[in-house]
Fold:
Amino acid sequence: MRRVLPPDYLTPIKVDGRIAVCEGASEGVGLGHPIEYICLDLEAPNVCKYCGLRYVQVHHH
Structure:
C-alpha cells in the first residue's frame, strides 16, 4: 500500500505566471492525471485536486 503525504508536507512549486498547469507525472514516471489549470491569484499556495502538488506564484517587485 502506498503512503501519501498530506499536501502541507510538500514544498510548493514556484511559478512565474498566474496559472500553473499540473499533469501529475513526475520526472517522466507514470501516466499522470488529466491536465489541471490552477489559478495562483491568492497569496497562499494552491493544491492540485488530483495529486496534491502545491503551487505558489512568485511575485517580482
The chain has a mean pLDDT of 83.
